[in-house]
Write a structure and sequence with these properties.
This protein is an alpha/beta fold. It has helices at about 5-20, 35-40, 75-80, 95-100, 115-130, 130-145, 180-185, 205-210, 225-235, 245-250, 255-270, and strands at about 30, 50, 70, 75, 85-90, 105-110, 160-165, 170, 190, 215-220, 240-245. It has two domains: about 30-145, Rossmann fold (3-Layer(aba) Sandwich); about 150-270, Rossmann fold (3-Layer(aba) Sandwich), CATH 3.40.50.1980. Strands 7, 8, 9, 10 and 11 form a five-stranded mixed β-sheet that branches. Strands 2-1-5-6 form a four-stranded parallel β-sheet. Helix 5 packs antiparallel against helix 6.
Length: about 280
């Protein structure tokens, strides 16, 4: 084959090589769930994100992104105006997702329901977006931190926990919930962990009967000091009342370990439980 023939051959071959390149080259991503936003930025894919939804508020850079609905409903017209190639959603059945798919947008569902699934999801999103190396490194670092989060030495061995998801009505974490798995992974016992609902409604009498060592209160939209006084009135002054950041504890993303470590440290301060 002459040099000219070789060049002609390469000229014919190059377009095919370009078409065969990874689908993530030049990706334009809609991050349609708060945890997806956090994962994408944490693995170095933030520059590929062109749109987000309400409640996507971390990191700071995401606040400047156009909003295209909520994680429960997509504004398809606003989404398409951003010329996306991929949309990461919590559930493929949410209104608008099928329309995006029909119009050529790759729809990726992401809803980790267990702590271990958060790590595998980080790796999967890394593979989907061309940031596998960064995602794998992040997941490995998070796994190492997770492995250290057992019941604190000299502290609460199988401490029983009442997790107050909401105050009025009084909601807690049940057996099928993400929070129940978080507590379990930390060596803690969820006092309503045998209830086969994700967020069962309970009453004060049931909490008293469960005799929790610790009450955990997310600091979102409530007066923590008021809730502490409330529970110490009903459960006694010895009950520990701990406030946590719900954005860290409830989102199945890379900051989950920050929330778990914060809870671990608070539990480690000052008390060993007997039951």
């Amino acid at each position: 084959m002459t040099l000219i023939q070789k060049l002609k051959y390469l000229w014919v071959l190059l377009p095919g090589l370009c078409l065969a390149s990874p689908a993530w080259a030049g990706e334009r991503i809609l991050a349609l769930a708060p945890h997806a936003c956090e994962i994408l930025y944490a693995i170095g894919a933030g520059e590929d994100v062109v749109g987000a939804v309400s409640y996507c508020d971390y990191p700071q850079a995401v606040l400047a992104l156009p909003r295209v609905g909520s994680y429960e409903r997509i504004n398809v017209e606003a989404a398409l105006a951003l010329e996306p190639t991929m949309a990461i959603v919590m559930d493929e059945s949410i209104p608008g997702a099928s329309k995006l798919r029909d119009l050529g947008v790759k729809v990726v569902a992401s809803y980790p329901r267990r702590v271990d699934e958060v790590l595998t999801e980080i790796c999967r999103i890394g593979a989907e977006t061309g940031h596998q190396k960064q995602a794998d490194a992040l997941a490995e670092a998070l796994q190492q931190r997770l492995d250290k989060l057992k019941a604190p030495p000299g502290g609460p061995q199988q401490a029983s926990v009442f997790y107050e998801i909401w105050a009025e009505p009084l909601l807690t974490a049940g057996k099928s919930s993400f929070i129940d798995d978080v507590l379990h992974r930390m060596g803690l016992r969820n006092v309503f962990g045998d209830v086969a609902l994700e967020a069962p409604r309970v009453n004060v009498e049931a909490v008293i009967a469960a005799r929790p060592d610790v009450v955990v209160i997310p600091s979102e939209n409530r007066d923590v000091a008021e809730r502490q006084a409330f529970w110490q009135k009903w459960l006694g002054q010895d009950v520990r009342v701990i406030a946590v950041n719900p954005d860290l504890m409830h989102r199945p993303g890379p900051r989950l370990l920050d929330g778990m470590e914060d809870l671990y440290q608070q539990l480690s301060q000052g008390q060993t439980f007997e039951h």
